[in-house]
């Protein structure tokens, strides 16, 4: 190797090293894992939007739903967790089973309520990668919305949730309709969440749940849905 070739080799190595450094610098540092919440210390997450400025959903409805139904679930989850801390090998089985059922119910209620309120506060206009994924899987935007609406209507006048979740089994999106808090797609990651318990709409619409569903879609926050979709794919 002559001097010119040697210098060229060194220059190439320096350039490659610099390029790798730039790529390394461009990467975001890994975020630390969230710390576990100690039993009995869950706190309500405040609304991320102004409840007085959501067309079709009144401030009274949203504030009551958030404070009483979601807030009540947080309070009850804390109480159940503290009771579970007292369980010993001598605790009757029926008592343990009842506590575990309540723990699951309140845990899911808290989680789904938080996801529900987080996906409100938008203008309802579909956009982003999640919207594209829905259209790609279901054929058109109109088709997936039709299926979500039909599932929601089937729960009207009763109780339950409609969830569009990423399935770990099939690696696709699934529309799930449940009649309570303790039913879900096992290990599924909720992306879009719609509360169909009567407390979510009765103050504004009585039993006219179809009008509530219209208002829900008009207030969907697609930026929030996109963030969830990106996290779920990772």
Topology:
Elements: H1 3-26, H2 59-84, H3 93-118, H4 129-138, H5 141-155, E1 161-166, E2 173-178, E3 189-195, H6 202-205, H7 209-218, H8 222-233
Antiparallel strand pairs: 1-2, 1-3
Helix pairs in contact: 2-3, 4-5
* Helicity level: 40-55%
Distance between the termini: 47 Å
Major pleated sheet: 3 strands, antiparallel
CATH superfamily: Iron/manganese superoxide dismutase, C-terminal domain
* Integer average pLDDT: 89
Overall 3D shape: globular
Structural account:
- The chain is mainly alpha-helical and about 230 residues long.
- Residues about 1-25 have low confidence and may be disordered.
- The longest helix is centred in the first third of the chain and has 26 residues, at about 60-85.
- The chain contains eight helices and three strands.
- Helix content is about 55%, strand content about 10%.
- The chain has one domain (about 55-234): 3-Layer(bab) Sandwich (minor pseudopilin epsh fold), CATH 3.55.40.20.
- The protein has a three-stranded antiparallel sheet with strand order 2-1-3.
- β1 and β2 form a beta hairpin.
- It is globular and about 55 Å long.
Quick structural summary:
This protein is mainly α and 234 residues long.
List keywords for this structure.
mainly alpha, globular, minor pseudopilin epsh fold, 3 strands
């Amino acid at each position: 190797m002559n001097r010119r070739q040697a210098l060229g080799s060194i220059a190439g190595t320096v350039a490659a090293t610099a390029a790798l450094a730039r790529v390394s610098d461009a990467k975001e540092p890994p975020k630390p894992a969230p710390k576990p919440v100690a039993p009995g210390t869950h706190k309500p997450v405040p609304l991320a939007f102004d409840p007085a400025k959501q067309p079709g959903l009144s401030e009274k409805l949203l504030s009551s739903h958030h404070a009483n139904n979601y807030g009540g679930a947080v309070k009850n989850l804390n109480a159940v967790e503290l009771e579970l801390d007292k369980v010993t090998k001598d605790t009757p089985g029926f008592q343990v089973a009842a506590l575990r059922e309540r723990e699951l119910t309140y845990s899911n209620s808290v989680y789904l309520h938080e996801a529900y309120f987080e996906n409100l506060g938008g203008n309802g206009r579909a956009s982003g990668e999640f919207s594209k994924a829905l259209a790609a899987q279901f054929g058109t935007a109109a088709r997936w919305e039709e299926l979500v609406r039909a599932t929601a209507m089937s729960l009207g006048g009763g109780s339950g949730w409609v969830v569009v979740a990423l399935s770990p089994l099939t690696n696709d999106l699934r529309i799930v309709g449940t009649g309570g808090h303790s039913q879900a797609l096992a290990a599924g990651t909720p992306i879009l969440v719609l509360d169909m318990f009567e407390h979510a709409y009765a103050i504004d619409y009585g039993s006219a749940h179809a009008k509530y569903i219209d208002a829900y879609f008009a207030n969907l926050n697609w930026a929030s849905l996109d963030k969830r979709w990106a996290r779920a794919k990772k």
